[in-house]
Each structure stands twice: as C-alpha cells, then as structure tokens.
Write a structure and sequence with these properties.
With 378 residues, the chain is α+β, with helices and mostly antiparallel strands. The chain folds into three domains: 165 residues, P-loop containing nucleotide triphosphate hydrolases (Rossmann fold), CATH 3.40.50.300; 55 residues, no CATH class; 125 residues, Beta Barrel (OB fold (Dihydrolipoamide Acetyltransferase, E2P)). The protein contains ten helices and 20 strands. Helix 3 packs across helix 4, helix 3 packs parallel to helix 5 and helix 4 crosses helix 5. The protein is globular and about 80 Å long. The two termini are 28 Å apart.
C-alpha cells in the first residue's frame, strides 16, 4: 500500500466526511442500503465492488449528482446532503477524463478557475504550480490529442486539484489505461494526492488498484458495506466468503466444527482425507457449519510426503493445471475427493532446491500452517 501515514490518519478523533445512514432507492430497488461510514482527512478511501454493488451511486451522492432517499452527508461539520454539486467543495475526476479537446493542457487545468472568475495572475500562478506538481509543465501548450493516456490522466488530475477541493472523488481513475501503465500510474497518483493533502474517495472494481492506493477499503455489494478496513486486514482476515473471494484469490473449503476449545479448533471437511486444526477458536458450538479460506500462497507443496506431516492440515492430489506467471506459478491440484486446491509457488523454489518442478499429472502433497486458514461462518 502506498499511503505510509495510515495509522496517523486514523488516529485523528474528528471524522472529516461522514456518511450517515444513507439510502438511495430507485423504484423498489435499493441501490445503496443504509450505509454509514466516517472518513478522515487525508485518507484515500476506496469503494471496491463489482458492477451493480452501489459504489458509483454512493459516489454520485457524495458529488451531489444524486440526492439520497434518506440519510445525511456531512463534510467538515457541514450538512451538504441537499447542496447542489456546484455548491460543494468537492471535485470529481471521471474515467474518461473529459478533457476539452479544443483547449491546451494549460487551458484545461485553468478552466474551473476562470469559471469562478479568479484573477488572471492567480489563475496563471495556480495553474503553473499544479502542472509542475503533475510533471506536465513542458506539455502546457499541447492539446489532449497530442498526449498519451497517462499524460491525459495527469492533466485531468491537475484540473481536479487546482481549485483545492476538500474532497476529491475518483471514478475508476485508471480504467482507461493499459495494465502496465496503470501499475506505474497508481503510485504517481497516490503521491500527488498525498502532496496536495486532499481527502479522496475512489471507486474501483480492481482489487490490486484498491490495495495499492487506498488507506482503507470498503468492500461493497448489494448496496451495503460487507467489510471495511485496511487492505492488509481485509485480505488476511476476511469476514465472509464474499470478501475472501473478492479481495484476492483463495481456496474455500466447506467443513463442520467437531471440536472448539478456548484456543484451538478442529474441523472435518468432505474435501480432505484428514482434519483441519486451527490455532484459534470461534467460540461456537460443535457441529457448526463453516467455510475455511486458505490463500494459495499459504498452501505449501511437496513432491513426496514429508515426515513432519501429522494427521492434520495436509492433502494429496494430482496436478491438474499449471499457470506460469513469471515470478510465481499457480498449481491447480485435484485432491482425492475431486476438490481443486490452488497453490502459488515462487518460480525459484524448485531451482533453489535443485529439483524439477511438478508437472501435469504428477502426484503432490500440499499443507498449511494452523494459523493461516480463516474459518468463516457465512
């Protein structure tokens, strides 16, 4: 994650932007359903979810383009729920960038200041300052058609920030860029936002983008926040199968709790020929149905059964598929039960051990530590 001031930001006592019981209904459809959240000054807060989850509708309500059916939006202590977009100290940057093709870069950035009738000298000063910040000064006289996608994105950002809004809204900010350029631009965008010090709410369906850029993430589905937290916390400790599967890749194994002690838990699964042993407790009853999430990078692989294996936390199977991704390879292992388990192994693993990597059809053994899987009740 690029934001290095997460804990410092979240230590602040007074929320800067407050979303209080906000609901938006279209006909009988709840696009946003009783959402509440405090966002702090200097945060980059990401709304992450698939299409139709409600994240864009919520962003539009923050911008004033939609009015909530009920609830309040409070910015810096002021209720802005019914304010028009032009009366809010909020700017929105769209995926398309919406640059004026007939204007130069400098004219695009200065446009909002001219509309506000800011003095000419001040417009020139602020525009030059913002172009320097996004490293676009030497392109000031070019038209948008003469710029690359990444350069257009910088111009759009400069135009959004030049009026120094209290909140910057980003709607799929990097969606128009190709994958390699998107990765490079993510950190540039975060650094610029941090230097300006603006509070930011962004919408994205890209998990990697959210985890790279955001201070905190709200995973959104069916108009509700399913989980809110720092990227690492949500990834490592999801609260549901939906969140576990949406944020990153995972194996979801069904099971039943057969023993739940104060500091450990034993789960039996139809997918394994032995039991899960977890070094923590849910505090629930025996025979409780659970789903165990195991990240592929936590699934170790062996070509022969190690002597240290106990009766817990391992399985055997055959390599069904292999996806080579450069630095890592993802092995799809078909267990004896027929269940497919994914294991992500660094490409250097086998070469450092002077072994041939497993190939299609090979029998392999997989295992995991007792503190790595997460037992979920929903």
């Amino acid at each position: 994650m690029a934001n290095n001031n997460v804990d410092k930001i979240l230590e602040k006592d007074i929320p800067f932007l407050r979303i209080q019981n906000v609901t938006k209904i279209f006909g009988d459809y709840y696009a946003v359903d009783d959402v509440s959240q405090d966002i702090y000054q200097g945060e980059i807060f990401a709304l992450l979810g698939s299409s139709g989850g409600g994240k864009s509708t919520l962003l539009r309500m923050l911008a004033g383009m939609e009015k909530p059916t009920s609830g309040k939006i409070i910015l810096d202590g002021k209720d802005i729920t019914q304010d028009e977009p032009y009366d809010r100290p909020i700017n929105m940057m769209f995926q398309s960038y919406a640059l004026f093709p007939h204007m130069t870069v400098e004219q695009n950035v200065a446009f909002g200041l001219k509309q506000d009738k800011v003095p000419k000298d001040e417009i020139q000063e602020k525009t030059a300052e913002m172009l320097k910040l996004v490293q676009m000064s030497k392109f000031a006289n070019r038209k948008p058609s003469q710029l690359s996608g990444g350069q257009q994105q910088r111009v759009a950002l400069a135009r959004s920030l030049v009026k120094k809004p209290k909140v910057l809204l980003l709607d799929e900010p990097l969606g128009a860029l190709d994958k390699n350029l998107r990765k490079q631009t993510q950190l540039e965008l975060v650094n610029t936002i941090e230097m300006v010090g603006v509070t930011c709410v962004m919408v994205t369906h890209d998990q990697e983008e959210a985890m790279t850029m955001a201070t905190r993430i709200a995973v959104m589905s069916d108009g509700k926040f399913q989980q809110v937290g720092k990227p690492f916390d949500i990834y490592k400790y999801p609260n549901s199968r939906f969140t576990a599967q949406f944020l990153g890749d995972t194996n979801i194994v069904h099971g039943v709790v057969i023993s739940d002690e104060s500091d450990s838990m034993e789960i039996i699964s139809e997918h394994l020929n032995n039991h899960f042993y977890l070094s923590y407790s849910l505090g629930g009853p025996d025979n409780m149905e659970v789903w165990v999430s195991i990240r592929p990078e936590d699934v170790n692989m062996y070509k022969s059964k190690p002597k240290h294996f106990t009766e817990f936390n391992w399985a055997s199977g055959t390599v069904e598929e292999i996806a080579f991704l450069g630095s890592v390879a993802v092995y799809y292992v078909k267990l004896d039960s027929g269940f497919i388990m994914k294991s992500t192994i660094p490409s250097s693993r086998w070469y450092l051990a002077d072994e041939e990597p497993p190939t299609w059809g090979d029998t392999v053994y997989i295992a995991w530590h007792s503190d790595q899987p997460i037992a979920l009740t929903r």
